[in-house]
Write a structure and sequence with these properties.
Elements: H1 4-18, E1 24-30, H2 37-56, E2 65-71, H3 76-88, E3 93-95, H4 100-113, E4 116-119, E5 134-136, H5 141-154, E6 159-165, H6 169-185, E7 189-196, H7 204-212, E8 218-222, H8 225-238, E9 244-246, H9 253-259, E10 267-270, H10 279-292, H11 298-316, H12 323-329, E11 333-334, E12 339-340, E13 353-358, E14 361-364
Parallel strand pairs: 1-2, 1-3, 3-4, 4-5, 6-7, 6-8, 8-9, 9-10
Antiparallel strand pairs: 10-13, 11-12, 13-14
């Protein structure tokens, strides 16, 4: 005859066997409350959508995905705290951050914990060719700056005046230095580079006045959308005929809302093809709009690609394989518009598209 306790113990074990598996925790780190929060919010929305879609399709090997979100507020201390909290929550991976300076704050803790971090957007050369736990979905500042140098030169510009935001120095200085070198190589000159710090009263008229002093034949802004719109207003007021260009950082959906007519003619790169009519991209765009009542932007597309790569690698990896190994081994992953393959350092190429703002919309140009 069975002891009653044995029966109870067996019943408990049977019940435990029916418990659902613990969810896979995925962390998100991005700027959700800063002046440049448009990029982080669009990225978070895309990751949220990717999680919901994957969960409705059965999760990862039958386990649901739980998203844990932390705001880095574009502040290095806040980013450090958020990273530590995600690690304490035992996340399998972190998607983010979206600014190079925030990645610089997060990376030491990520490496120490051995947790994979996949940044959708960072491009600084500081993060290229390093054997660490950071993977990047975007190309480098060197790639982008070289393309800009060639495009501006092709358009007849030889003397460029630049301004750059020191609050995201890891990106802006990397971009500026790469541009200066590439532009000089083909016969152009960056005649002045005016530093500024992103804040509501940054003195945008003074910045543009300083840029105009050495009589450039083109203006280049290395700034987030919220500051770029103000810089373009001043450029249109002080030098309405001068060509204006801005780096890919500002190419968000919010930019058009913020800048209005002052942006007319602005040259800016996009990290995705807005004209794409493929079934895969249109299905994503429609699902995103239905869920968030707005169109996806570049950080949405890149963040969704980051989530796809992480989920697919987790699905495919075998026992004993780390996620870091799986991301390299099981590539290419099917992104929304292009496949994603990482080299041993977590770096990847990406195709970009030049656009010019005309009548309040991004129009692709050759």
């Amino acid at each position: 005859m069975h002891h009653p306790l044995t029966a109870v113990a067996l019943a408990s074990l049977a019940l435990l066997g029916c418990q659902p598996a613990e969810p896979v925790r995925i962390g998100f780190l991005g700027g959700l409350s800063s002046r440049a929060s448009d990029v982080g919010e669009a990225g978070r929305n895309a990751v949220q959508l990717a999680v919901e879609q994957r969960n409705s399709a059965g999760g990862i090997r039958g386990r649901t995905i739980e998203l844990i979100v932390r705001d880095d507020a574009q502040d290095m201390e806040v980013a450090t705290r958020g990273t530590k909290e995600l690690i304490e929550n035992r996340v399998a991976a972190v998607i983010g951050p979206f600014a190079s300076s925030m990645a610089a704050a997060a990376l030491p803790h990520i490496n120490q914990a051995g947790v994979v971090m996949v940044s959708p957007t960072i491009t600084s050369m500081d993060f290229v060719g390093n054997d660490d736990y950071l993977f990047r979905i975007n190309r480098t500042t060197r790639d982008n700056a070289r393309d800009y140098a060639a495009k501006l030169y092709q358009r007849g510009q030889r003397r460029i005046a630049a301004t750059f935001d020191v609050r995201n120095r890891s990106f802006t200085e990397s971009w500026l230095n790469e541009f200066k070198a590439a532009f000089a190589e083909i016969g152009g000159e960056t005649i002045i580079a005016v530093p500024f710090e992103s804040m509501p009263d940054a003195g945008f008229a003074d910045i543009v006045t300083k840029m105009l002093a050495p009589r450039p034949d083109g203006l280049l802004f290395i700034a987030a959308a919220v500051d770029l719109s103000r810089l373009c207003e001043q450029a249109k007021r002080l030098a309405p005929k001068l060509p204006i260009a801005a780096t890919e950082w500002a190419a968000s959906e919010k930019l058009i809302e913020l800048g209005g007519k002052a942006l007319e003619g602005l040259l800016i790169v996009q990290n995705f093809n807005r004209e794409d009519r493929s079934a895969r991209y249109l299905a994503f765009r429609d699902a995103y709009f239905k869920r968030f009542q707005r169109d996806p932007g570049y950080s949405s597309v890149l963040a969704y690609d980051a989530a796809t790569a992480v989920f697919d690698a987790m699905e495919k990896r075998t026992e004993g394989e780390t996620l870091k190994q799986a991301l390299v081994k099981y590539a290419p992953f099917e992104g929304l518009q292009q496949t994603i393959s990482f080299d041993a350092y977590g770096d990847t190429p990406r195709t970009v598209y030049f656009t010019q703002i005309r009548d309040g919309r991004y129009e692709q140009i050759e």
